[in-house]
Amino acid sequence: MAEITASLVKELREKTGAGMMDCKGALTETRGDLEAAVDWLRKKGLAKAAKKAGRVAAEGLVGTAVEAKKGVVVEVNSETDFVARNEQFQGLVKLIAEAALHNGADIEKIKKAKAGKTTIQEAIAGAISTIGENMTLRRVAELSVASGVIGTYTHNSVIDGLGKIGVLVALESKADPKELSIFGRMLAMHVAATNPAAVDAKGIDQKTLARERDVLADKARASGKPTNVIEKIVESGLKTFYKEATLLEQAYVHDPAKSVAQAVKEAEGKLGHPIAIKGFVRFALGEGVEKQEQDFAAEVAAAARPS
Question: What is the sign, positive or negative, of the torsion defined by CA atoms of 267, 271, 273, 275?
């Protein structure tokens, strides 16, 4: 059984918005299992669906790069947010993104790739030495299409292609690439804002779907509903879940009166060719990485003590 610490209770509260005592009770019931505690709270009606993105904690930059029918997104982490404003660090992230374009999403292969007279790994080591902070190439993803474009968007940009959130959207189509790229950017902005789980219902992970069914069924059962009614409630709940979690069924952020699927249909009419969303990638800086919280006052006091 995991120790139920104050920080664990705090993390559960941030994930769910439930009260402190409810969070502590949930963790006690689930023997310290954070994800199980989220479900426990949801079944009791004390929390909303957990967000997948998690709390952003790491620093650094997310970078995107597109060439022809291929795009990449990379995340390079640093110790402080000051580094994101450093021109050398920005140049390093750009260099890594360019290397990923020609070497794929294999991090070790990217590190060994040549960047002028040095390798990417040596460039990272050089930046660490010069700037004085540890840096890591955390992750890389790529998308490509046989015919069409890769739409891209970078949120909170410090310079073109570098920011806090990077998105790629793969659009398969024979439409004019210039016009298609404009629509692709609009879709990428939508993905940045809504963080869908998949393009459509078929792309939802089966474990996630089973978990959602379980939560919906347990909530209905706890309210005393009969079995035949519970099944209808679950199916209705899943339809709502798909509208919230799948890209094509979400309300289009640029015009909430229509769905993304309807926006795609409209774009097909304007551009004169079918458009298929083949996939998307969304990197938010530091998602899933827990940064150690520091008590600045205690840190200063500790530094002031005689050694």
Answer: negative
- The answer to whether the CB of 182 falls within 8 A of the CB of 151 is no
- Asked if 76 contacts 55 with a C-beta cutoff of 8 angstroms, the reply is no
Q: Are 62 and 163 in contact (CB under 8 A)?
A: yes
Q: What is the CATH number of domain 1-50?
A: 1.10.8.10
Per-domain boundaries in the chain: 1-50, 59-197+274-284
Q: Enter the tokens of residue 170.
A: 């793969």
Q: What is the pLDDT along the chain (307 residues), one digit of tens a residue?
A: 668 888 888 888 877 777 788 888 899 999 998 888 888 887 777 765 444 333 333 699 999 999 989 999 999 999 888 889 999 999 999 999 999 999 999 999 999 999 888 899 999 998 988 888 889 999 999 999 999 999 999 999 999 999 999 999 999 999 999 999 999 999 999 999 999 999 999 999 888 888 888 888 888 888 888 888 888 888 888 889 899 999 999 999 999 999 999 999 999 999 999 999 999 999 999 887 655 444 445 544 444 454 4
Q: Is the pTM value of this prediction over 0.85?
A: no
Can you read off the two tokens belonging to residue 149?
Answer: 């474009």
Residues 6 or more apart whose CB falls under 8 angstroms from that of 71 comprise 64, 65, 101, 142, 143, 144, 150, 152, 168, 170
Return the exposure string of 280-293: e unless at least 16 CB atoms fall within 10 Å of the residue's CB, then b. Answer: bbbbbbbbeeeeee
C-alpha to C-alpha distances, 279 to 103, 171, 177, 192, nearest whole angstrom: 20, 8, 17, 14
Question: Which ranges constitute the DSSP H helices of the chain?
Answer: 6-16, 20-29, 34-43, 87-103, 107-112, 120-131, 177-194, 206-222, 227-245, 260-271, 296-304
Identify the CATH class of 59-197+274-284: alpha beta
- Rounded Cα distance, 166 and 94, in Å: 13
- Radius of gyration for the chain, computed over Cα atoms and rounded to the nearest angstrom: 23
